[in-house]
Amino acid sequence: MLASCEKKEIIFEGPYHILFTEPTGSARESFNKVIPISVHLVGPQLNQDIKIKYTVSGTAREGIDYEIEGKDDVIGELEIDAGDSFGYINLKLINNANNILESQNLVFTLLEVTPENLQIGRSTGGIIGRSMTFTIIDDCILSGNYTGRSEFTGGAAEGIAITSADCETYTLSNWNVGLLSIGGVKLDLTFVDNGDNTLTIPPQIEDVISLASDTIQGTGSVNPSNGRINFNIELTFETDAGEDTIVVLPIEYIPERQ
Q1: Which segments within the chain are labelled E, that is strand?
Q2: Ramachandran quadrant class, 116 (left: phi over 0; alpha: psi -120 to 50; beta: rest)
Q3: Distance from chain centroid for Cα 189
Q4: Do 131 and 153 have their domain in common?
Q5: Which of 15, 32, 87, 214 lies at a 20 to 30 A Cα distance from 63?
Q6: Would residue 5 count as lying in a domain?
Q7: The model's pTM
Q8: Which of 116, 137, 158 finishes a domain?
């Protein structure tokens, strides 16, 4: 005798969930672009807007360390538009660098959602995806992105990064491309903050463009009222006749603010 088994299709009908896309995130306080914190719908897209309320806690201070676009109350709100799966909390960091490297954090927590048949978070108690922690990494005073302008050539270049691990010795990511040349390899250099609004570029060799005996060095200053940096970069190189020649290149770096 043959026996047959009837298969019954099981169709998942929910519940569907609202979650933070990533559990954590971070950026340096000098980052000057909007940071979208993503919240998404786990389930089919709806034909109506999804409204989500959230709270913000943590050690970071609103209006001092960060701002959130469109948030004007203790409880914030975002939407996932009809026919879409993602909504965003738009975070903007405030660069209040003071050379004290202590990071702060924000904890975003989803509070309630409309329509109410959606659930916040997953697992028992909706723990997974309910909260998201964002760390604001403290930066040094001179760290950030700059636009460089060369008095020597009239050239300009955007998005030049200045970084430091100790707020004393810094690395400048580009002093040549767009400023002294149209293309090629972007060359960095090291400089030291003397702590009195003056800067020193110690002698250093740039192997990409020079002989082993050629050096880059120079001096600079910081305008404390607007953060602009002015360098006089000295290039010392040997001519075909075997003589050293020094060329001084004045370059200004302007902070790219929010």
Answers
A1: 17-20, 24-28, 35-42, 50-58, 66-68, 76-80, 86-93, 104-114, 119-120, 131-137, 144-150, 156-164, 169-172, 189-193, 198-204, 215-222, 229-238, 244-255
A2: alpha
A3: 21
A4: no
A5: 87
A6: no
A7: 0.70
A8: 137
Report d(CA 110, CA 41) in Å as an integer.
Answer: 13
- Look at the chain and report how many structural domains it folds into: 2
Per the structure block, which two tokens stand in for 242? Answer: 């075997």
81, 107, 137 - which closes a domain: 137
- pLDDT-derived band at 218 (thresholds 50, 70, 90) equals very high
Q: Could you report the per-residue pLDDT of 229-254, keeping only the tens digit for each?
A: 999 999 887 766 767 788 898 999 99
Domain assignment present for residue 6? The answer is no
75 or 124, higher pLDDT = 75
Dihedral (C-alpha) 13, 15, 19, 23: value to the nearest 10 degrees?
Answer: -100
36: preceding bond cis by omega (within 30 degrees): no
164: domain CATH number? 2.40.128
In tens, the pLDDT along 54-75 reads 999 999 999 999 999 988 888 9
Structure letter (DSSP) for residue 92: E
CATH assignment at residue 76: 2.60.40.2030
CA 28, 179, 251, 245 torsion: positive or negative?
Answer: positive
Q: Which residue range is the domain that position 54 belongs to? A: 17-137
